[in-house]
Amino acid sequence: MNDTITAKREESETVIEFDHVNWKYADTEIPALREIDFKVNRGEFIGIIGVNDSGKTSLCRLCNGLIPHSFTGELSGNVRIEGEDVRNTQTARLAKRSGLVFPDPEAQLSQLTVFDELAFGPANLGLPKEEIIETVNKVLHLMDLDSMKSRSPYTLSGGEQQRVAIASVLAMNPALLVLDEPTSNLDPDGTKKIFQTMKDLNQNEGITVLLVEHEIELLAEYATRIIVLNQGKKLLDGTPREVFSKIDIFHQIGIHVPQMTQVSESAREDYGLWPNQQDPLTLSEMIDLLNL
Ligand SMILES: Nc1ncnc2c1ncn2[C@@H]1O[C@H](COP(=O)(O)OP(=O)(O)OP(=O)(O)O)[C@@H](O)[C@H]1O
Ligand SMILES: [Mg+2]
């Protein structure tokens, strides 16, 4: 391991690439994903949003090879993770490049202690014991879990369990961390802490983050890029400012834009205020706009 959790990588800037991807689960009529095409560069923090059944989880499953290796169906196009085609690469090998965290932390835990939980993946890869201990200690520290390393993961709070689940994925030293609604079972404090942790990992450890979330306000604040899925297609893709300025599209598909953006737009439409100003995304931007 190097100084940072992600070992220095020589590969290209592109961490993951979807190239005209279509996916249909076996025995279903409608494709879950249609003509999905995008590249994620190293260091990006991507938020994925979309209503139910828009294909978010399916996209996550493609990011670590669960599709097509553990699901049957029809796949066309290519998904490459650090240049490796998911079709031709074993999931154990892909796990060193891309890790997936699910909504329910408890379902991802299996070991008697937090330490063992983190050591489980690297041990399965057959890494030397000293290297495993060094990695686990580093990740425990990074995720603020040192004091819990001897505890049973099942005795922890939901937020702590989700941090253990994230830590166990990080112990595999992935370039890309994919999280499918990781805060859906957490309270507001636990949710905020997960977002802050993702930001720290992204900015300090160089980990590329792809986060599926319903927390629009937090995504507007933390993500560097937002992708909106609708009926299996990529509908919007850009910076939070670019994407959330398409208020009409959000209304059509039934997702709200950040509260401050909505208030600002109503103030302009209904009261003619700040006609030439960009709508704010966050409370601090609104305060700036109001010169408070
Ligand atoms: N294991 C599966 N077998 C068959 N069809 C599936 C399976 N998983 C998902 N689907 C279907 O694929 C489509 C996309 O589902 P997916 O779970 O990817 O959407 P989602 O955006 O994650 O939804 P949600 O917000 O409910 O989590 C839906 O029509 C869904 O019914
Ligand atoms: Mg889902």
TrEMBL record:
Membrane topology: Peripheral membrane protein
Record domain ABC transporter: where: 16-256
MF term (GO), any: ATPase-coupled transmembrane transporter activity
SMART domains with a match to the protein in the record: AAA (SM00382)
GO CC aspect terms: ATP-binding cassette (ABC) transporter complex
Membrane recorded as keyword: yes
Pfam families: ABC_tran
InterPro entries: AAA+_ATPase, ABC_transporter-like_ATP-bd, ABC_transporter-like_CS, ABC_transpr_CbiO/EcfA_su, ECF_ABC_transporter_ATP-bd, P-loop_NTPase
Keyword annotations: ATP-binding, Cell membrane, Membrane, Nucleotide-binding, Translocase, Transport
Superkingdom, taxonomy of origin: Bacteria
Primary subcellular site in the record, as a coarse category: membrane
Keyword Translocase recorded: yes
Compartment annotation: Cell membrane
Family, similarity comment: Belongs to the ABC transporter superfamily.
Name of the protein in its database record: ABC transporter ATP-binding protein
